[in-house]
Amino acid sequence: MSNETPPPPASTPATPYTVQVAVDAADPHTLADWWAEALGWVVEPQDEAFIRSMVAKGYASNDDTLLHNGALVWRIGAAIRHPDGLGVAPRILFQAVPESKTVKNRVHLDLRAAGEPATPPDPAELERILAMGATEISRGQQGPLHWAVLTDPEGNEFCLTVPAS
Predict the structure, then answer these.
(1) pLDDT in tens, 116-127
(2) Are strands 42-43 and 109-111 parallel, antiparallel or unpaired?
(3) Distances (CA, A) of 101 to 9, 94, 104, 119
(4) C-alpha distances out from residue 37 to 2, 31, 33, 40, 99, Å
(5) How far is the C-alpha of 137 from the C-alpha of 156, rounded, in Å?
(6) Is the pLDDT of residue 115 over 70?
(7) What CA–CA distance (Å, rounded) separates 67 from 33?
(8) Is there a contact between 65 and 53 (Cβ–Cβ < 8 Å)?
(9) Which pTM value belongs to this model?
(10) Largest Cα–Cα distance in the chain?
(11) Which residue, among 142, 141, 159, has the nearest Cα to 150 in the 3D structure?
(12) Tens digits of per-residue pLDDT, 53-65?
């Protein structure tokens, strides 16, 4: 009997992938700011010198950029990440799309307090998120777990664990 680990199946990639969550947005920079505040995360800075060099070399145009919060950024998108790095949570990329949201998300974010399920959710958190501009659209529960279904300012659904009511 061998103690060797069997090789991965032939259909497994040679190197595991990392994951980034992409969210379509009408205004990706404003939505990234909103989500960074909501989650307690940080907006990734963009390299203005690199952007300017790409425009100067003709690889991009000034129409590909914009000023957001006083900084030159790529118009197409913005990303946020957990303040402790990508080893804690995946990066979230907000990307500009021309069409507006028309149907329910097939993928959504579930927000829960660090340490859950052992740490109960903060009852004030729902009010904080609502005061930031989220909209509550429904409630759900399974066993002892309770959540509110919310939408961000652009209508993207997400869930937030809440105390039992």
Answers:
(1) 565 677 889 999
(2) unpaired
(3) 39, 14, 8, 34
(4) 52, 10, 6, 5, 25
(5) 11
(6) no
(7) 14
(8) no
(9) 0.86
(10) 65
(11) 159
(12) 999 999 999 999 9
